[in-house]
Design goal:
The complex is a heterodimer of chains A (371) and B (365). Chain A is α/β, with parallel strands linked by helices. Chain A contains 11 helices and 14 strands. In chain A, the strands form 2 sheets. In chain A, strands 1, 2, 3, 4, 5, 6, 7, 8, 9 and 10 form a 10-stranded mixed β-sheet that branches. In chain A, α4 crosses α7 and α10 packs across α11. Chain B has a two-stranded antiparallel ribbon with strand order 1-2. Chain B is globular, with a radius of gyration of 21 Å. Chain B contains 15 helices and 2 strands. The longest helix of chain B is centred in the N-terminal third of the chain and has 33 residues. The chains are: A alpha/beta (371), B mainly alpha (365).
């Protein structure tokens, strides 16, 4: 190729790049970022969906947030979610960007009615992250989204801190990503579980310590904070777990650092199917109402074993009675049996009769800084 | 062994991690994908062996050249034209699917024609480069982007949300009659080696070596890539419903999260790096196309200041066909046609390998 053609081609490329930048690009001052999406269902039949968006107002400095407003909110009721979002675009003077929305709050009404219907838009849209967290808002998604805890700073968004494990680390919080919810909603043998985010009446405080299981048959079950903690242990998600043990007059609390759960489903033709579950934990004692002797650590461990075992069995049999499966036991059954027949159908017959055999092995390492 | 032969193969493997191959494999997950993949791996390794064996005998020669020497005249022209068409389609498939994907995820406001044109501008410049320069380009970009792709794949495997039970559930479907489309899709990832048809001319002194070790190393890479393609989307997105995802690999990349990374959403990183690799793959395919075409049509008098302008005619044709198809196809049509294209590949590969045997016998080497 002669140099002339090369130069010509180069010029042509440069020229076309100039044209390219002119389409689709918007400066950041023309955009506003959505941080949280709240969806409620209303009684109104014509406009059943109510969408609330939390929008971040950019401020120049970190301290700038102290004086002025940090967030603004828009709410709209509409017949479809997509329409609500389009109309909401006309309520702010900037282009809304959903790429940073890391929290989706669903009203309790949504999960009571039809979760899949509402989730469809969120899963289908390309700009909503599959790694956003989903939670259930109480009393309503709107009030939760509009809550601004005083500890919330301009750059650290309160909701994200609850779920991301970078801020709060707690065994009482279940965090569910959107993609996790999607697979739990559509796969058999595994039921969705969502954290409940509660706001107080003055909208100054958020509390996340309960959860809700929403199986396919819409038979929702709320787990108390203790049950949520146990669920986290059983699902291998927990760290920093506290367990309180009471025996006679003695009462002490241990802080477990790590826990590991393994289980096996054993079925044989003649005997009752059984799930053998092994929980292994280590920890130290955090609180006690009497003096503790370090020589008796083994005895204390045993007490913790008994207590955990009792609680775990209780929770597992509750799941069984209500016919929900947030731990994915059915999935494990399908995953360990060759698919030569409908294994899931088999599982639905087995599950109500299955027996749980839980063994807990705690090793307490210390009585804390005092004996 | 010449490391560039490896690059030819790896580029195709990395590039096929994104669009059609995972989609086809995951679609067949209940109908014999696993056995199909195993058969594909075996067939792929045989193909690699055949190519290395053949080009080992003819160092520095490209396939059209050999064909012209040892083939009957009436067969040369249609056969080479057919081959150039196959390579062109392979490139076109990559171009269109990547254009659609960019439109969906990265630049939704940009018209499709513009996205395709940006590709085409650089490609037209690239495919006219010397064969050796293309190989150097590949090396540079592959070295930059392959660590990132490997990092992302391991990240997916290590993710706490990765549910091995879904993978195990998929393995429970092993007792199925092997699926033909899964076979073709997994064979496709090994077909990067077929670019040797033209690229063999770059090494006139160092001949391509053939040995079990090289075939095994190449096959191993293929196995690892297939494993990742098939298993990671399953582990992150579940088993029963995964065929509802239009772009399984990309949705899967969106399920990864880099907590302390500059970009939290892995999706964009994934798209950019695979964009680079796909671009190279397109470059390879169309370079082969244009070289075959050059060996067929060469208008000697069509000159302007010592420059023969024949290749530019081809490029104009490439532009026209690409822009026409990219605007007229729908996503669904693209996937169906890709399937058909994959169905043909085993036969085409067979024909080429038979021709190898023919050429070798006539050349008496």
């Amino acid at each position: 190729m002669s140099s002339l053609i090369r130069k010509g081609l180069l010029l042509f490329i440069c020229f076309s790049l100039v044209l390219l930048s002119s389409c689709g690009f918007k400066d950041i001052d023309k955009r506003i970022f959505v941080l949280a999406i709240g969806i409620d269902l209303t009684e109104n039949k014509e406009k059943p969906y109510k969408v609330t968006l939390k929008l971040a107002i950019p401020s120049g400095t970190l301290k700038g947030g102290q004086g002025g407003e940090k967030y603004t909110y828009v709410t709209k009721e509409s017949e479809t979610l997509a329409k609500a979002l389009r109309i909401l675009k006309t309520h702010v003077d900037k282009e809304m960007d959903f790429g940073h929305a890391s929290i989706i709050i669903l009203g309790k009404s949504v999960i009571e009615k039809d979760l899949a219907d509402v989730m469809d838009l969120l899963i289908r849209r390309r700009d909503i992250q599959m790694i956003s967290w989903v939670g259930v808002g109480e009393p309503s998604a709107e009030s939760v989204v509009k809550t601004e805890p005083p500890s919330e700073m301009a750059v650290s968004f309160a909701f994200a801190n609850f779920f991301s494990d970078n801020g709060v680390e707690s065994a009482y919080i279940v965090s569910t990503f959107l993609f996790d919810l999607r697979r739990r909603m559509f796969e058999s043998g595994l039921d969705p579980i969502l954290p409940i985010v509660r706001a107080n009446k003055k909208k100054t405080k958020l509390m996340v310590n309960e959860s809700i299981i929403t199986p396919k048959n819409n038979n929702n079950i709320t787990l108390s904070s203790n049950e949520t903690k146990l669920y986290n242990i059983l699902a291998n998600r927990a760290n920093k777990i506290d367990i309180n043990v009471k025996k006679n007059k003695m009462s002490f609390t241990v802080a477990l650092e790590k826990s590991k759960v393994k289980y096996k489903i054993i079925t044989s033709q003649n005997s009752q199917p059984i799930i053998k579950m092994k929980i292994k934990t280590t920890g130290i004692i955090e609180e006690s109402n009497e003096e503790l002797s370090p020589t008796l650590l083994k005895k204390y461990s045993k007490l913790v074993n008994q207590k955990t075992k009792k609680d775990a069995l209780q929770l597992l049999s509750r799941f069984q009675d209500e016919n929900v499966d947030p731990l994915g036991l059915g999935l494990r059954y399908k995953a360990t049996r060759l698919h030569t027949k409908d294994t899931y159908k088999e599982w639905t017959k087995i599950y109500p009769n299955i027996k749980f055999d839980v063994t807990v092995k705690t090793s307490l390492k210390s009585t804390g800084t005092v004996e | 062994m010449n490391r560039y032969v490896y690059y030819l193969l790896y580029i195709n493997m990395f590039a096929s991690m994104v669009i059609s191959v995972p989609k086809i494999l995951l679609h067949e997950r209940k109908d014999g994908a696993i056995i199909g993949m195993i058969l594909g791996i075996i067939a792929g390794m045989l193909v690699i062996y055949a190519y290395l064996w053949f080009f080992n005998k003819f160092p520095g020669k490209d396939y059209p050249e050999l064909l012209k020497k040892y083939f009957p005249k009436w067969l040369q022209f249609p056969f080479l034209l057919f081959l150039s068409l196959v390579w062109f389609t392979a490139g076109l498939n990559t171009l269109i699917s990547y254009t659609f994907m960019l439109k969906r995820f990265l630049t939704p406001e940009m018209p499709v024609v513009w996205i395709a044109s940006t590709f085409l501008i650089f490609i037209s410049y690239g495919i006219l480069m010397h064969t050796k320069s293309i190989l150097y380009t590949i090396e540079a970009i592959l070295i930059i982007s392959s660590p990132v792709t490997i990092f992302l794949s391991t990240k997916a495997f290590m993710s706490p949300e990765f549910e091995w039970d879904f993978v195990r559930e998929a393995i429970m479907y092993v007792y199925r009659f092997p699926s033909y489309s899964a076979f073709t899709a997994s064979l496709y990832i090994f077909l990067g080696i077929t670019n040797l048809l033209i690229f063999n001319r770059a090494w006139s002194t160092k001949r391509v070596q053939v040995s079990g070790k090289h075939v095994f190393l190449m096959g191993l890479a293929g196995i690892m890539i297939l494993f990742t393609i098939y298993i990671v989307p399953l582990g992150m997105n579940g088993f029963n419903n995964i065929d509802h995802l239009v772009y399984p690999a990309i949705t899967t990349s969106d399920t990864l999260r880099m907590t302390f990374g500059v970009i939290e959403r892995v999706l964009y990183l994934f798209l950019l790096f695979f964009l680079a690799i796909t671009f190279l793959n397109l470059l390879l395919h169309w370079h082969v196309t244009i070289e075959i075409l050059k060996s067929l049509f060469w208008i000697k008098k069509f000159k302007w200041k010592e420059n023969n302008l024949t290749p530019y005619i081809f490029i104009i044709i490439f532009w026209l066909i690409s822009l026409k198809t990219v605007t007229s196809l729908s996503e669904y049509q693209l996937f169906t046609y890709t399937d058909y294209f994959f169905y043909c590949l085993p036969f085409i590969t067979m024909i080429i390998i038979v021709s190898f045997w023919f050429v070798k016998r006539r050349a008496k080497v």
